[in-house]
């Protein structure tokens, strides 16, 4: 599958410093910042600095160093945000996953009970 990256997406603009963000953590390969419209007490987005559209693009095509850097940022966010009692990591992907921003991002949600991930299929 080909992954076409749009360099004008909003997270690309954040990475270029064209749009401000509330940074939680940054390393060579990843940036973590607060979601502008939080859906839980803790709602942080972790994104790679490389141009990857989605989780499957990142998993297939990012280097080992980029993947390690990304997950090091996830670990640091979980540590610093104090989500010992649990959290949810979400990577919405393309149309079925209702992905709004076409730059791979992992939502880290927590700080309070989150309820079940999805309603049972019969209620959809
Ligand atoms: P998606 O639906 O693509 O998984 O999630 C995109 C997320 O990006 C949403 O939760 C939305 O609130 C967040 N978001 C969109 N634009 C901005 C922005 O300019 N700054 C920040 N910090 N978050 C944004």
Under CATH at level 1, the class of the domain at 26-110 stands as Alpha Beta
What class would the helix/strand composition place it in?
Answer: alpha+beta
Helical residue percent?
25-40%
The CATH superfamily of the domain at 26-110 bears the name HIT-like
Look at the structure and give the mean pLDDT: 96
Q: How many runs of DSSP E, i.e. beta strands?
A: 5
Beta-strand share of residues: 15-25%
What's the CATH topology label of the domain at 26-110?
HIT family, subunit A
Could you spell the SSE succession in H and E letters? HEEEHHEHE
Strand order of the largest sheet: 1-2-3-5-4
What does this structure look like?
Helices cover 27% and strands 20% of the residues. It has 124 residues and is α+β, with helices and mostly antiparallel strands. The protein has a domain at 26-110: HIT family, subunit A (2-Layer Sandwich), CATH 3.30.428. A 5-stranded antiparallel β-sheet has the order 1-2-3-5-4, with helices on one face. A hairpin with a 7-residue loop joins strand 2 (30-34) and strand 3. It is globular. 23% of the residues are buried. The model has no long low-confidence stretch (mean pLDDT 96). Bound molecules: guanosine-5'-monophosphate (5GP). Guanosine-5'-monophosphate binds at residues 10, 19, 21, 33-37, 92, 98-101.
């Amino acid at each position: 599958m080909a992954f076409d990256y749009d360099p004008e997406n909003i997270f690309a603009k954040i990475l270029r410093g064209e749009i401000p963000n509330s940074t939680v953590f940054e390393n060579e390969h990843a940036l973590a910042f607060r979601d502008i419209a939080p859906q839980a007490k803790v709602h942080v987005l972790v994104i790679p600095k490389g141009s990857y559209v989605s989780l499957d693009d990142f998993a297939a095509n990012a280097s080992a160093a980029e993947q390690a850097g990304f997950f090091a940022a996830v670990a640091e966010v979980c540590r610093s945000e104090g989500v010992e009692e649990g959290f949810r990591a979400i990577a919405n992907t393309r149309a079925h996953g209702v992905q709004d921003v076409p730059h791979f991002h992992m939502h880290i949600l927590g700080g309070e009970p989150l309820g079940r991930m999805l309603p049972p299929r019969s209620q959809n």
